[in-house]
Write a structure and sequence with these properties.
Helices cover 58% and strands 2% of the residues. It is mainly α. The protein has 2 domains: 86 residues, no CATH class; 154 residues, no CATH class. It has a two-stranded antiparallel sheet.
């Protein structure tokens, strides 16, 4: 759905006034379906490889040669949607900002999506107890989740920036990390203290529901791709001659 949203966003509200050949719409739809299928097959090959996923993956590779022209046109449209053929970065900045807001409002807001790092857990227990007595507040509970008193606005903001802005992690202490538990999304996941899969998710597919690590890993890689495209425009804007 992300490529489709980017494509509609790029048309600046003129989607109903533009008339394109039907073949172009069909090739765009097939390209979106191929990208979604390729992403699904790649994840399945990593999580639980089987002959079914392998055959589906090979089928997608065969379809790639049949849809090579459509995929090439799709990449060209995506390039236009993001940076307007290298002339503007406003759309790209909007995508980066929207992804950051989604993570902050729907994922980082829930403390169940995080756990202490190995570095924080490696601190000797006596030293932890001494620090907790001095601070009179527990940093994490028995399930290794940040306590409600410790998971304040600043913690949520810094964790969001860490995975959405490259190099921010270099100046942030390694105390929290995305948990190896089911992703909890505000408004979608059932209420409670446990990381539960949403009720509307198909039964038997629980293992296919992403973990918190999966979400932030995807955001990290995606932003490492988007920011190098955005920074040259920002540097040019800041350093342009008066």
């Amino acid at each position: 759905m992300l490529p489709l949203a980017l494509y509609l966003f790029a048309l600046n509200g003129n989607i109903f006034r533009l008339r394109r050949p039907l073949r172009e719409y069909a090739s765009f739809l097939l390209s979106v379906l191929w990208c979604a299928g390729f992403f699904y097959a790649s994840v399945e090959m990593v999580i639980a490889p089987s002959w079914y996923e392998f055959a589906f993956f090979v089928l997608l590779l065969v379809c790639l040669f049949l849809l090579l022209g459509a995929i090439r046109c799709f990449v060209d449209q995506l390039y236009w949607s993001l940076v307007d053929y290298g002339t503007s970065a406003m759309r790209l900045a909007g995508v980066i900002f929207v992804l950051m807001v989604i993570s902050f409002a729907l994922v980082s807001r829930d403390r169940q999506n995080f756990e202490p790092t190995l570095l924080a857990l490696s601190v000797p227990q006596q030293q932890q107890q001494k620090q907790q007595q001095q601070q009179s507040i527990l940093k994490w509970d028995s399930k290794k989740r940040p306590t409600a008193e410790n998971w304040v606005f600043g913690e949520r903001l810094w964790m969001t920036l860490r995975y959405h802005v490259p190099l921010v992690g270099a100046v942030i202490s390694d105390e929290w990390q995305p948990a190896d538990r089911a992703l909890t999304v505000v408004g979608l996941s059932p209420p409670g203290d446990d990381n539960l899969v949403p009720d509307w998710w198909p039964q038997g597919w629980e293992r296919r529901w992403p973990r918190s690590r999966d979400w932030y890993g995807a955001m990290l890689w995606l932003n490492w791709i988007l920011w190098p495209l955005f920074l040259p425009f920002l540097i040019h804007r800041l350093s342009r001659e008066r």
